[in-house]
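Summary of Year 1 activities. Much of the first year was spent building the evaluation harness for sequence design. The harness presents a backbone, in tokenized form, and records the residue chosen at every position. We chose the following record to illustrate the format because it has been used consistently in internal testing since the harness was completed.
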């Protein structure tokens, strides 16, 4: 995985050229749209999970604040 990050400019050009030859210029926009939709769905799902965790923790936080008020006040 780390080896992939060490690509130079020439290697990137070769990979892009092979990608263009393999898929053709008409399929690349479709692939990019699909990739974008997949990334958006993943981001939305991650945000939904984060929101659910926050919503579930809110009553616990409120209860903790109430206990703290009772002990200190």
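For this record, the design step produced the sequence shown next.
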């Amino acid at each position: 995985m780390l080896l992939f990050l060490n690509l130079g400019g020439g290697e990137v050009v070769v990979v892009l050229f092979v990608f263009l030859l393999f898929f053709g210029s008409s399929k690349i926009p479709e692939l990019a749209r699909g990739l974008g939709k997949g990334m958006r769905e993943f981001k939305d799902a991650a945000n939904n999970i984060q929101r659910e965790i926050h919503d579930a923790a809110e009553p616990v936080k409120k209860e903790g604040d109430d206990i703290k008020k009772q002990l200190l006040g």
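The longest helix spans residues 27-72. Quantitative recovery figures across the full test set are reported in Table 2.
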